[in-house]
Amino acid sequence: MKITGRSAEAIFDSIREGIGKGQLAAGSVLPPVRELAEQLGVNRNTVAAAYKRLD
Question: What's the rounded Cα separation, in Å, for the pair 40 and 42?
Answer without folding.
Answer: 6
